[in-house]
Specification:
Layout: H1 19-25, H2 34-42, H3 45-55, H4 62-67, H5 71-74, H6 84-94, H7 115-126, H8 141-154, H9 160-180, H10 183-186, H11 193-210, H12 217-235, H13 250-264
Helix pairs in contact: 1-2, 2-3, 3-9, 6-7, 7-9, 8-9, 8-11, 9-11, 11-12, 11-13
């Protein structure tokens, strides 16, 4: 294949490529995981799944990893009201869906579901567009935040096929997002500062960290970090106090900054 895929972009929709085509078109950073790179070059999806599982380490343990996955993304739900249905799925996975209604009893004779079982409906929802031939819709930043959070917190505990499906989808979405972001959008006054921060700061930074073996990852981390740092300096006083005009959406503005800092640890 004449054209290579990097995190900086790709001229076509990655969803149009089959698994082998996508893997063999990937370009890699220097120092990329040899096992992952070799498996991808060979177009061996099973070996890629194994390499991803071996490379991914849970970034949270205990209760946070088992029940908290999805909670961080929900911090930004109010900025994306059209994603209410996705928010409900995230709440269920995160264990935030509340107590049973009056008269409703929890089943006591069933074995508790594993994280992979509980998260399957969420993965299906996030990756739906990968399974049809319809033209790609615009990338939902909220959905990409959710997908990257699942990869970061739960990737090592997913079934191999789940991990591959989510990894491939997240890669496709990030490449499309980077390709379609324009300088004009960066100065669009109708786009809230917190949404801009997600699209141009958090997502590039986190994607670069999670897809660190793919070519362009280092550049994405650098670009995302620059936007995050600039937002802090522009929207807070020298002592770190947010400016008055930020108060109305302060929690939404803080959310991507906190998520990015947690990934950086």
């Amino acid at each position: 294949m004449s054209s290579t895929i990097t995190l900086s972009g790709y001229k076509s929709d990655l969803a149009s490529l089959n698994d082998i085509e996508l893997l063999q078109a990937l370009a890699w950073e220097r120092g990329a995981d040899p096992a992952l790179k070799a498996a991808a070059t060979a177009g061996d999806v099973d070996a890629v799944q194994s390499a991803l599982l071996a490379a991914l380490q849970p970034q949270a343990t205990g209760r946070e990893s088992a029940l908290g996955c999805g909670a961080r993304t929900l911090w930004s739900l109010a900025a994306f009201p059209e994603e209410a249905d996705l928010g409900k799925l995230l709440s269920q996975v995160a264990g935030l869906s509340g107590k049973p209604r009056a008269g409703q009893k929890r089943a006591t004779n069933k074995a508790p579901k594993t994280l992979a079982q509980r998260i399957e409906p969420l993965i299906r929802r996030l990756t739906t567009e990968e399974d049809n031939d319809e033209p790609s819709e615009p990338v939902s930043p909220f959905a990409v935040v959710a997908a990257l959070e699942v990869l970061a917190l739960a990737g090592a505990r997913l079934r191999p096929e789940q991990l591959w499906k989510l990894w491939r989808h997240s890669l496709s979405q990030i490449v499309q997002l980077i390709r379609t972001n324009t300088d004009e959008d960066a100065h669009d006054p109708t786009i809230p500062a917190d949404v801009q921060l997600i699209e141009r700061g958090e997502l590039p930074f986190v994607a670069g960290a999670l897809f660190g073996d793919v070519a362009g990852a280092a550049d994405l981390i650098k670009a995302g970090r620059k936007v995050l740092a600039r937002s802090l300096s522009e929207n807070a006083d020298s002592d770190g106090t947010p400016r008055a005009e930020m108060i109305e959406r302060l929690p939404l503005w803080l959310a991507p900054l906190i998520r990015a800092s947690l990934i950086a640890k």
